[in-house]
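Work Package 3 (structural annotation) set out to generate three-dimensional models for the target panel prioritized at the project kickoff. During this period the team completed the workflow that converts sequence records into discrete structure tokens, so that structures can be stored uniformly alongside our sequence database. As a representative example, we reproduce one entry of 328 residues exactly as it appears in the project archive.
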Amino acid sequence: MANGQSNSNGVYLDFERPIIDIEKKIAELEEYSARRGIDFSNEINQLKGSLEGAMTEIFANLTSWQRVQMARHPHRPLTSHYLNLLIHDFLPIQGDRIFHEDGAIVCGFGKLEERKVMVIGHRKGRNPQENIKCQYGSAHPEGYRKAMRAMRMAEKFKLPILTFIDTPGAYPGIGAEERGIALAIAESIKLMSSLRVPIICTVIGEGGSGGAIGIGVGDVLLMLQNAYYSVILPEGCSAILWKDGGSNQEASEALKLTAKDVERFGICDEIVPEPIGGAHRDHKQTVQTLKDAIVRRLVELEDKPLDELLEARYEKLRSIGEFSESSK
């Protein structure tokens, strides 16, 4: 278990059970070998070979619903991890100057290596208390208005914008509706489409509905390998189309929400590979791989004239949802 971060405290997904069983056997043999001074290296190496084979087979053949579960893994790196490991000298921006501070979206100035950037991302917690404070990553209107405030500051100071998308959707409560959640998201989409700075958006986990696209309009859209991007949650789709909550697999397949699906539709520009077994097994490697992709893409964007960049961004946004009609 790389960095000791996977499946701690017995937390694992059902399809990970064969892997966990082998890992437990390896840990038990290593502990017993150390305690008794008996050499079990051959047995341990055999188990490690079995572990590698099991992981390769399982994670190369995940279903759409299993990838949704991976995107929601309780130990998956969150926006806070990317801020800590990817960005330094981070200076947060708080409040929308209209209502109050929304804990579901974090914004601020920072540095990616020596490049100054503006960072905007959905915030989730690691426990119920943290998640209550940030509404499980579901932002209110004031969260998107805070994000827009940060975007305008980025444009003023000519800073590229990095967004990290990880939300099941915008907050669905009455208060959010009363304060204009749909308008806030629409205004954010409109603003991002015309900002005169490079924008790179990354789906690091859940990319749910308008809550995701509210900070998801940019020049480049990256997706981690086990992230998903969808117009509706599989559970919501299942309830609407199948009238029950037990058709999540069918809904996930129908929604075409995996990174490969989204890339095939021309919405995702690049899939960022995760460590074998998922991002939750090695946060540092995941962050480093994503950093390499972001830096490479930023260099490409900075070489483009702004007018050309804006035209391409607008066309990219408008092409989402294209369809063709047949006379048959």
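The radius of gyration is 21 Å.
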